[in-house]
Amino acid sequence: MSTDTALRIDDELIIKSLATGNQRSEADLQEILIRARQLKGLEADDVAALCTISDPDLLKELFNVARDVKEEIYGRRLVFFTPLYVSNLCRNDCAYCAFRTSNKGIVRRALTMEELAAETASLVDEGHKRVLLVAGEAYPREGFDYILKAIDTVYSVKRGNGEIRRVNVNVAPLEEADFRRLKGHNIGTYQIFQETYHRQTYGQVHLRGRKTDFDWRLGAMDRAFAAGIDDVGIGVLFGLADWRYELLAMQQHIRHLENRFGVGPHTLSVPRLEPAEGADLASNPPNPVSDLAFRKIVAILRLMVPYTGIIMSTRETADIRRETFALGVSQISAGSRTNPGGYSAEDQNAAAQFSLGDVRSLDEVVADVARLGYTPSFCTGCYRLGRTGADFMDLAKPGDIKKHCDPNGLSSFLEYLLDYGQPKTQEIGMRRIADTLQTMDPEPRRRATAMLEKIRQGRRDVFC
Ligand code: SAM
Ligand code: SF4
Fold this sequence. Notes:
Blueprint lengths: L10 H11 L4 H11 L7 H8 L4 H19 L2 E11 L25 H14 L3 E6 L9 H12 L1 E2 L2 E2 L2 E5 L5 H8 L6 E2 L7 H7 L8 H5 L1 H7 L5 E4 L7 H19 L5 E3 L10 H4 L7 H14 L4 E4 L5 H8 L5 E3 L28 H10 L3 E3 L3 H4 L4 H8 L4 H20 L2 H17 L2 H15 L8
Parallel strand pairs: 1-2, 1-10, 1-11, 2-5, 6-7, 7-8, 8-9, 9-10
Antiparallel strand pairs: 3-4
The site of S-adenosylmethionine has 20 residues, from loops.
């Protein structure tokens, strides 16, 4: 473990890498792709070089290698979750977000614990097992305790065979002591996005409140790790600064965490700016990212850090989502709402954070994903068995995670189909399970078959 402390994004290094990236020959690019296929990750100069690819054949090769790497490490599983917005109160003024404090025209609310329990019940009844609890940066009277109570409330809801088994959290950066309290409430991943690693752009779009402090946010994961949270997710809000700069800066963030804490982030998120009420910048991104560039971003990240999960939200359309599954995405949200009370409240006045590209129900997305040959997974096994942080990475790196994740994915998928699946989804899903079993190695197949049998006999929450 190094003694590095605060992370500084090294601008000069990024600019130098981007300049050399432009000078690489086709043979160099081919060579980088050959190395990337060996699952060893990429250096900064390699990332910069891959960003320059525009030749259709090379692009195809980049996407093919990303797909191979994804399948090698994650198989054809896609883990499902949904965001759970508990509050849209906020003191910050992010120029791209409908919850910004200067947006006076919206209805604001923080769910009461009764409302949150009703919201959770709706999600459980649809078949969700994982949620990402999200809030603006202002809490009701009880302060941060509100978030801790909210987490406990979500875990307390039981409905028939179902419950939420993993609560990930996306709330504003905390002091180390509050991170410690958060850890004590049994969270899965703590997630926060830097939005942009480009300090100047950051200053231009974060206009008021605590979030104006770039370094406070950049140091959030260090404080989280110091507090014992070893499962963190980072991200960039694409559209703010040059996406090539963001990839190289994100790589510096990852290396910093690896050097300092022995493990990097568990997940990367790649939100792209979507229109948001009262936030014109969201409809006019300063550095728009085309659909092609977006696919490149996902593919390059897959090669840069092969063992780190990539999350694709419902900000994107169904078509873009489908394309990126093949390029490296390992987790997706489905059936999402971004307004507090959006899943259950009769009164739907509270404002949403941004508009969604994919508004299909969970069941529709599950059926679609299974039809495309992926296994929807609702597994929460690793974190409940303590396989997080460095332990998870040790398991993931030699590809061993497949021995657990494939059977767990199938068992949680069968549970979903039997308890919540529509008849058509059940039919597609059962076929998918049978086909997947055929492709598995003998040991994981034996394990999966035994677990599936337990689910058929009525057992639930079976994982290894
Ligand atoms: N308020 C906390 C914060 O900002 O850190 C918690 C998370 S905020 C509710 C969730 C994320 O939504 C932000 O980090 C940002 O990346 C994303 N977001 C905000 N406005 C968006 C927009 N117009 N389009 C897409 N994503 C947006
Ligand atoms: Fe508040 Fe987060 Fe929206 Fe910024 S992105 S205005 S901090 S909710």
